[in-house]
From TrEMBL:
One of its GO terms (cellular component) is ATP-binding cassette (ABC) transporter complex. The lineage of its organism: Bacteria, Pseudomonadati, Bacteroidota, Bacteroidia, Bacteroidales. It comes from the Bacteria. The chain crosses the membrane at residues 12-33, 63-85, 106-126, 309-329, 341-360. This is YjgP/YjgQ family permease. Pfam families: LptF_LptG (PF03739). It is a multi-pass membrane protein.
Amino acid sequence: MKILSILDRYIIKKFLGTYIFSIILIISIAVVFDINEKLDKFLDKKAPLTAIIFDYYVNFVPYYTNLFSALFVFIAVIFFTSKLADNSEIIAMLSNGMSFKRLMKPYMISAGIIAVFSFVLSSFIIPPANVTRIKFQNKYVRDKSVEYASGIQLQVDKGVILYIERFDNKTKEGYNLSLDKIEDKELKSRLTAQRIKYDSAYHWELYNYKIRELQGMREVISNGDKIDTTLNVVPSDFLISVNDFEQMTTPVLYKYIQRQRDKGIATVGDVSITQFEIEFHKRFASVFSAFILTIIGASLSARKVKGGMGLNIGIGLGLSVSYIMFQTVSSSFAVSGTMPAWLAVWIPNLVFMAIAAYLYSRAPN
């Protein structure tokens, strides 16, 4: 018994072919608009043509392709299924005894291929490519890298709280440091220094330091010009930019979030650690969105209507745009602290899963 019939292969070919075509069409338009928007900056900063092509646009295409993958899936399903329905091909399939459930088999296989491909891209391939793309943007378009931080406070170890008044990443130096060790809610020691310098691999140098050790009612004070120490913290723990999570593979992103939570870091400047959590959960939620939107698109456009393909495509675009807007709105609730990041990311999927179930029940049989 064949796993895939000729009809299955025909639908899979149509699905994936339309998906790839929609990507080429829309991304080509996006590249043209992006070039038009950034051309003056490229010329002003004398960006090399090779860097524009290979460092920026070669990495631009997969990033935005994956970012709007759900939209491309929806458009592809709506377009080619409406065309099948308009040509009475779906009516012929159902008239020969094929159920709509059986018809959905090649759709789900196609959605599975796209979902796996999208997850691998977002988790392991695009993040390293984003390093090159964002480095180009910071140099030739707009620099969003973070080189300064102030009011830094975090837990570097259990009961050990670090505070740095300000830190300059260009010189790797910070000023007015304090390191408090607390046991059983009591301060046991405090180290202060006028200047601190990062060397490498958790190695720091402290200048003009003073150490106060509290031993009951007795206090022991020592000081000096310079001391080397090891702190479980690196500048990247508190120098966080809005683009950082885009440059991390999924395993690295997970470890980073855990590390920041352990240190008690919630927000640095305008960047919240919740944004990193949202990105982490989105990479998994997008896998299921491919199946949900495929069911909605197929169920919606399988019936031949008087309005033709135009009506189905219009409804499909409306639903896809509302899905993307819903994702954006729900994510903002997570950033503001109104709801957990995982819930904010999965709410659009849950709502559209209900829509998919309703439309599936109304699909032609």
